[in-house]
Write a structure and sequence with these properties.
It is built from five helices and no strands. It is mainly α.
Length: 81
């Protein structure tokens, strides 16, 4: 199944960090924190974001963005080997 990080979902929705922070009434540092590591994101904020980004919850990767990127790089290496 195709999954996106919160940052990728935001960018795909054409929104800036500042715009999202304003819409969900959070500081942009808070939104950025959860884009980098969504493993502890409060459900009410996650729910607002998936509605804003118009993406199903099961398409969001919940965890550290660096872990997601590492997994994607491993998949690419496996496909090209």
């Amino acid at each position: 199944m195709l999954q996106f990080t919160l940052k990728a979902a935001r960018v795909n929705a054409g929104l800036t960090l500042e715009e999202v922070a304003s819409i969900v009434k959070k500081d942009k540092k808070t939104v950025n924190k959860y884009e980098l590591d969504s493993s502890t994101i409060p459900y009410d904020l996650l729910e607002k974001l998936i509605k804003l980004y118009d993406i199903p919850l099961n398409h969001i990767f919940l965890g550290k963005e660096s872990d997601f990127i590492g997994k994607q790089q491993q998949r690419i290496l496996a496909l090209t080997s």
